[in-house]
Design a protein that fits this description.
The complex is a heterodimer of chains A (236) and B (455). Chain A is an alpha+beta fold and 236 residues long. Chain A is built from 5 helices and 11 strands. In chain B, the strands form 6 sheets. Chain B has an 8-stranded antiparallel sheet with strand order 13-12-9-10-11-14-21-19, sandwiched between helices. In chain B, strands 3-2-1-4-5 form a 5-stranded parallel sheet. The chains are: A alpha+beta (236), B alpha+beta (455).
Chain lengths: 236, 455
């Protein structure tokens, strides 16, 4: 869900601090909330589920005509639409805002459809700004303490699934902490692989499309720490 | 039969399922959390895959992580073991939605037996004696009338949830009136539902359970019963079979009623029906466990039948291949649960590195454990380190073998409850076969140990 992060960057000038807050929030949602929601949705014949937690809204929508077993392939690209007070309304009857609506496909697709891939995560602009300013200083300093004493970092898999390197996962690409390096597809839901630090992308250790386990090392990074020369020499 | 099974559990039961897979010639993949990377099942499996961090909610309780792991490793079935997601009908449903087989009852069967109150009424309708109880309590007057009908003492129980919340035992109408308010507010805050019902409370009860297996075609057999009366705060510590509480005729009659009721109610796969036995030997059905249980080896030693491979075969759609007359129980078996907990300090659970480990052997001795020297017992999960199971042609021989095996068993590095088992085998009440479920709690672990030491 890097879009949400970038979106906000534009809004409030892209301070590292707010980005980190964002990524932490997204990572937590992806890790804890999404799997539970997906499990829930796949056992119902609801077309859509939406949950609010703090400033976040997560909406799961079952794509049209996905039958049992198809969902896990998730070849269709997830729609990451913008903050969700109103949603798109496609695939929903004219029901009031946040009420789950029956999917038009649920009659034929049965109640045991696989997993929806339409995921929307976003934050309201107003609350995001508030959070950014209050959470700022703390996260900034936390990063300083652990960012300076290593010359290399490795991005690991956030989930068990299949590995899809992103456009930044190319050797020599300069990335910032939290930038998405790709995704791991868990039951059709992409789990973001954030860069663990600012740096330059090195070797990718796993081929695209391969199965990966939780915590598996995926992409090497050469760190570009601010106080670089002294610190990296020491580390060796 | 399946080609490849994902084992979505840990510890001794993961190892037990792995052994069953080997026996069947089925490949086994172990799904493990980061805390179990060095565990024995993860090391011995054909393939092991990390599904999440130590926190069980993100690993052993995460349906998406487990199902994803099964798919990427090419498994066609998932064995949930016990605990975690083993009786979660939602999980079973999602597993099926991904064209995988859940090794256990099908989702609709799990769903039918999900509510304790509902299951009691269902099986009561098929001839099982159930514990006397009320319908949902509407008001205090209704509660008082129902309690009079049942007879004190009664247990006030919430219809939702579990874990002892909103549950109170009362001995008089006055106690009932004051306790019912507390129960309502506890149940309301814990489960968001304050509906209560009453159940007859048996003071000195024994816990006896009947093991059954039913295939997809409605053929079912029972494997006799186990006595699990040695408990501490509703946790079983020691199990044995046959129960010393009932005559051979009463045991046969109970098992027969149990299997007839579950077959009639459409149960499928292995399961256990739990009963309370009162002082007069009357049995009351309380609940059904829709999974393989910790204490299943007691039955395996008594019957010579491998229940885990049977469970897998039933899930694969194979016929039971057993008639009731094929199931013959012989002798007496006792299981000791070896836990990382300190009986002298209120059974406080522990963790740490196993420095030395030796499993006992000899005739009629079986040890199911994932321990090895150097293994680090993680603090995140339940404290079960393994199970020592002994068999003898009769109860005194089983007890003698149990004493010898417990003497030989060596676990160093973490505090264990081995002492409580040694004490139990010297305790007169146990030796006479008169244990009740409240005995250990009433006496207290430390006092129990001291009494045994003083003999």
């Amino acid at each position: 869900m890097p879009e949400a992060g970038r979106q906000r960057e534009r809004q409030d000038g892209g301070s590292d601090a707010s980005r980190q807050v964002d990524h932490a929030g997204i990572a937590r949602l992806a890790d804890e909330l999404l799997p539970a929601l997906i499990a829930k949705l796949s056992t119902t014949d609801l077309g859509e589920l939406e949950v609010r937690e703090g400033e976040w809204h997560v909406r799961l929508r079952r794509p049209y005509g996905v039958g049992p077993g198809e969902g896990r392939r998730a070849s269709d690209k997830p729609s990451r639409s913008q903050p969700g007070h109103e949603g798109h309304g496609h695939g929903r009857a004219g029901v009031e805002g946040h009420r789950p609506a029956r999917s038009p496909g649920s009659g034929s697709g049965s109640g045991s459809t696989g997993v929806a891939s339409g995921v929307t995560a976003g934050s309201g602009a107003a609350s995001a700004a508030t959070n950014g300013s209050s959470g700022g200083p703390r996260s900034g300093s936390a990063r300083d303490t652990d960012g300076t004493d290593r010359s290399r970092a490795i991005a690991t898999s956030p989930a068990v699934g299949t590995f899809n390197p992103g456009s930044r996962a190319v050797s020599g690409t300069r990335v910032r902490a939290g930038d998405s390096l790709g995704t791991v597809d868990m039951l059709g839901v992409p789990q973001d692989i954030p860069a663990p630090a600012d740096g330059i992308v090195g070797q990718t250790l796993v081929e695209a499309g391969m199965a990966v386990e939780y915590g598996q090392e995926l992409i090497r990074l050469e760190l570009t720490a601010p106080a670089a020369p002294a610190a990296s020499a020491e580390a060796r | 039969m399946f080609r490849r099974i994902l084992i979505a559990n840990r510890g001794e039961i993961a190892l037990r399922i792995l052994r069953a897979c080997r026996t069947l010639g089925v490949e086994a993949v172990v799904a493990y959390s980061e805390a179990d990377r060095d565990s024995l099942p993860a090391q011995l499996a054909d393939e092991a895959i990390c599904i999440g961090p130590a926190d069980a909610r993100r690993s052993y309780l995460s349906a998406p992580a487990i199902i994803s792991a099964a798919l990427v490793t090419g498994c066609d079935a998932i064995h949930p073991g016990y605990g975690f997601l083993s009786e979660d009908e939602t999980f079973a449903e999602v597993v099926r939605a991904h064209d995988l087989t859940f090794i256990g009852p099908p989702p609709d069967v799990l769903d039918r037996f999900a509510s304790k109150e509902g299951t009691r009424r269902l099986l009561g309708g098929f001839g099982l004696p159930t514990i006397p109880g009320s319908t949902m309590i509407s008001d205090d007057d209704h509660a008082l009338r129902e309690a009079d009908k049942i007879g004190y003492p009664v247990l006030i129980k919430p219809s939702a949830g579990g874990g002892g919340k909103g549950m109170r035992m009362v001995r008089t109408s006055r106690e009932l009136e004051s306790a019912i308010k507390i129960c309502r507010s506890e149940a309301k805050s814990a489960f968001g539902d304050d509906s209560l019902y009453l159940e007859k409370w048996l003071d000195d009860n024994r816990h006896v359970e009947v093991q059954v297996a039913v295939d997809r075609f409605g053929a079912g057999v029972h494997f006799g019963e186990r006595d699990c009366s040695v408990q501490r705060r509703h946790q079983k510590i020691l199990e044995e079979g046959p129960t010393p509480a009932l005559s051979a005729e009463a045991r046969a009659a109970l098992a027969d009623k149990a299997i007839k009721a579950v077959v009639a109610a459409g149960y499928e796969n292995v399961g256990t029906l739990e009963f309370l036995i009162d002082g007069a030997g009357n049995a009351y059905f309380i609940e059904i466990n829709c999974r393989i249980q910790v204490e299943h080896p007691v039955t395996e030693l008594l019957t010579g039948i491998d229940l885990v491979t049977l469970q897998i075969k039933i899930a694969a759609g194979e016929p039971l291949g057993l008639r009731q007359s094929d199931v013959v129980t012989r002798g007496h078996a006792i299981e000791f649960r070896i836990n990382a907990e300190d009986p002298a300090h209120d059974f406080r659970p522990g963790a740490g590195v196993i420095e030395r480990y030796h499993a006992p052997g000899g005739p009629g001795v079986r040890m199911d454990s994932h321990l090895y020297p150097g293994y680090e017992v993680p603090p995140y999960y339940d404290s079960l380190l393994g199970k020592l199971i002994v068999w003898g042609p009769d109860r005194p021989t089983a007890i003698a073998r149990g004493r010898a095996a417990l003497e030989e068993l060596l676990v160093e590095g973490v505090t264990t409850n081995i002492e409580i088992h040694r004490a139990l085998l010297e305790n007169e009440t146990f030796l006479e076969g008169r244990m009740t479920t409240n005995l250990l709690d009433r006496v207290g672990g430390a006092a129990f140990l001291a009494a045994a030491a003083a003999r």
